[in-house]
Amino acid sequence: xxxxxxxxxxxxxxxxxxxxxxxxxxxxxVAIPYLMSKIVDIGIANxxxxxxxxxxxxxxxxxxxxxVFGILSAYAGARAGFGFAxxxxxxxxxxxxxxxxxxxxxxxxxxLITRLTNDCNTIGQVTMMSLRMAIRAPFMMIFALxxxxxxxxxxxxxxxxxIPLTAAIIALVLTKARPLFMKLQTRVDRVxxxxxxNLTAIGVVKSxxxxxxxxxxxxxxxxxxxxxxxxxxxxxxxxxxxxNLIIYGTIIAVLWFGGQQVVLGTMGSGELISFxxxxxxxxxxxxxxxxxxxxxxxxxxxKDRILEVWNTDSEIxxxxxxxxxxxxxxxxxxxxxxxxxxxxxxxxxxxxxEVNSGEIIGxxxxxxxSKSTLVQLIPRLYDTTEGKVKVSGIDVKEYDIEGLRDHxxxxxxxxxxxxxxxxxNMQWGNEGASxxxxxxxxxxxxxxxxxxKYEDGLDHIVEQGGSNFSGGQRQRLTIxxxxxxxxxxxxxxxxxxxVDMTTDARIQQAFRDxxxxxxxxxxxxxxxxxxxxxxxxxxxxxxxxxxxxxxLLEISPIYREIYESQEKGVIGE
Amino acid sequence: MSNQKQKxxxxxxxxxxxxxxxxxxFKFNKSLFFGGILFIILASIAEIGTxxxxxxxxxxxxxxxxKSLFIKYILIMVALVIIVALSQxxxxxxxxxxxQRTIHKIREDMFSHMEKLPIxxxxxxxxxxxxSTFTNDVDMLNQSLEQxxxxxxxxxxxxxxxxxxMLYISPLLTGIVVLMLGVxxxxxxxxxxxxxxxxxxxxxxxxxxxxxxxEMMTGQKVVKxxxxxxxxxxxxxxxxxxxxxxxxxxxxxxxxxMPIMGNLSYILYGLVAMVGAYFVIQGSISVGNIxxxxxxxxxxxxxxxxxxxxxxxxxxxxxGAERIFKILDxxxxxxxxxxxxxxxxxxxxxxxxxxxxxxxxxxxxxxxGDITFENVDFGYVPGQRILKNINLYAKPGQxxxxxxxxxxxxxxxxxxxxxxxxxxxxxxxxxxxxxRRIKKYDxxxxxxxxxxxxxxxxxxxxxxxxxxxxxATDEEVKEAAKLANxxxxxxxxxxxxxxxxxxxxxxxxxxxxxxxxxxxAAVANPTILILDEATSSVDTRTEKLISExxxxxxxxxxxxxxxxxxxxxxxxxAIMVLEKGEIIERGDHEVLMEQKGRYFALNTGVIELE
Lengths: 573, 610
Hints:
Chain A contains 19 helices and 12 strands. By secondary structure, chain A is an alpha/beta fold. In chain B, a hairpin with an 8-residue loop joins strand 4 (371-378) and strand 5 (387-394). Chain B is elongated and about 115 Å long. At the A-B interface, helix 1, helix 2, helix 4, helix 6 and helix 7 of A face helix 2, helix 3, helix 5, helix 6 and helix 7 of B.
């Protein structure tokens, strides 16, 4: 909690106000039974109607005050709790923004989403609950106890039996139930898993006539869920009757012992009645405390998950005085080796090559030959394990990271368009760029031919993930977006696989026309790189050979194998 | 922005009907239901009795000091408390059992119904939506059944019983209680409405935020590449602030009810004490009466707070139940087929179609794998034709390839053969029999599909292959894996054929999953094979293994291929080039190349398929 707590700062006033108001409310609540005992023992005993009315009005006023404090406390608690949650959420989001690729590889997308949504909300809820319940219940209990002891200390000793008894029973049930509820969660997960499986694979189930088989599998899991749930609930159900037994048991004890004192005249009957109310208040507070602990467990789990994000630091750091100017697009790899953090084996081994500014380089190789890893070292998406990557003759680690990435336009293999308009998506590459610039980039990427056909042109809506475009269109849009940066170096990681060969050729011509811009193209199709100035053939993390298309056909068996398998050809998509 | 997701219904549209239907589920557990209710009522009455005992006990203490009477009353109270605890335990346990059994049955019904729904249903309803009904709605209903039903009963009995007792003790004091309860109900309604409004607002802000986060997290690597971090943070800040305000308001109103109701009950407590004292002095009631009344004020106001707290949950649960029943009411896949597959005869694999004749006799037609499309029209939505006037035939053992852009209708044609979809016009014949006359189970048991998107199931590798035919022996499974070129990689898995696959085979590569799905189809030994060939994203060597595996699988079976590779197409018996739902070119490779039409253009890479 120590790490999260400083983010409460903006809402400190509310966080302090909430419990104070709550204590005031509790004070009012505790005073009421005491006032009532005065009515009975003084007002009725002396037949003093004025006194009865006076005390009665005070009681009503106290309750109204309590209500006002209570409402204000609710507001302060909500402000503090959800203000805190929103600060935490913002901090977490910022942290994720600072993540390197390696960090992102460590978290699944869905786990990051859960942390930013559910976990942050839980923290808000639990904070609010803590500020209210964690204050209310103990104070209520303490005040009510003080009142009881003041009224009649010898009678109040019944609490010394009933409080520990209740606490013990609640603790016992919680420890018994916890493992069962955890088991229950895994049962729920198993049922959900098979439902999800069947939803996504319903076609397979039906085409193999496996409906009955699946129903049978489901039944087994559903049955075990029911059985576990029943076991867990049977324990929880135990709590209420036993607590009632204790509460009423205490009341009866108080009536029994207190009754004798009333008869002897050492205790007022009003005091006895108020005692009954205090018993209820004390016991209800105990229950509230136990509920609070259950909530807290939930909050702790969320806190741990969020801290996991916070405690992850990007290993890619800028040097003290980074170089901001990048002169040209030349690249060199000096004895570069790389392994992913935590991995034992090297993904790239001893890579050496140089690219002149303005050259067009093709890279080809089977999946798992680490083509993508290689190019991701250029804009420092990962840092090399050994050796140096240089851009414009200077180690990439010496550059200002933002400047470096501005100069290297990178079209990722798994690329995403964002919901919004085409214009908004294009402006990712160049904030506030004019329509002319955008249209120019779209033309270079051969995307203008379909964008210009839209009635709303650049205002055409892009659905989340670009799902309203075909694969080829999406790829052309992401290429255009990268071109918007006006970079020195462009890297295309398998970015034209869904584009037809003619358009592909035109895009490559456009790259050539860019002039002094270095272009690196990773492709599966030989035709996409055939005309590059130089082609690197990757095999199991090493450069197997390099050269022009013609040379490679002669010297590289791997290149030849790929070429021959593609001679047979792919007819599309 | 397109983040405007469909709003989740939080209120039931027809609560009465939904409730009645829900109650019909209890009829399987009548004794639990009535027994449970009986004990809950008993507990509530006993509790009222316990509280009422305060009155005579206090009065004996204040009044005549009759010790034996005092002991008698205390003993009665002890007995009542024991009854409260016991019947509460039995009652709650019965209700919890009832809830679990009901939910269990509902889940089972939903699942088996889902298995029977026709494929088009799954196209119309996003998986996320169905999944949410299966999980969230069922969960919500479970909670409500477990708690709300008994709570509503307890509340009702307590309120009514307490009122009777109060009226019996003092009608005038009861009047004050009624007045305050009116104030309470009004507050509940007033706050409740605002709370519900704010809650809805919060839910929609939350949905908006979730959508945004989902999109950004999915594209996080793109954000890095474009130095977009700061702009993303700015956008996020705005949304975060909106959400903060909405949540604060929702929580304030949600929590506010607690101090309001709690303190209103204290006001009532004070009023009862004050007015009661006045009556005691007047002599119309006793001190013991006040004591009992004070306990009553607590037990009357608690049910109101409880029920009002539960009301939103209860409505949401009913709305969820409506969604559940809506799924259960969807029409199942219909099967009016009267033609069955019978074994021990002269057809392929010793199977024959048994076709009933009008005169009550049967004709047996050997299974061959002959498919004919006659003037077939089809559209997913009425009025929108996806396939127009399709005519084609496949003789037993022939290979037919479909070529064309996405959306041209290639996959649709194959989905008609196994009757995932029903055609609008025309007829499809299987061995000369209209496929609509064939029982779906038997029809599909003669076919296997290998799709691009491979779906594997949680379980071992062997179990996944055996999915094709449940009674296949280990030997047959291995044979099928060998045929599919999958044996080699399976052998190198940590536990070989017994390696457990996670849901959808996440621990296998794309190519390996493809090989497994071929093995799965092979073990089924189908007469007709439908293949959707994989595209790139697989390395050259694995692709070679896959295409070899597919070639071996096709051998001797009637095969429909959604083709991507030239080699497959080239040796097909016929190639259908589809465009916008029509066959625009047909013939074998040589014929089509000579025509120099669309197929020729595709082959030479002049056009892009979209």
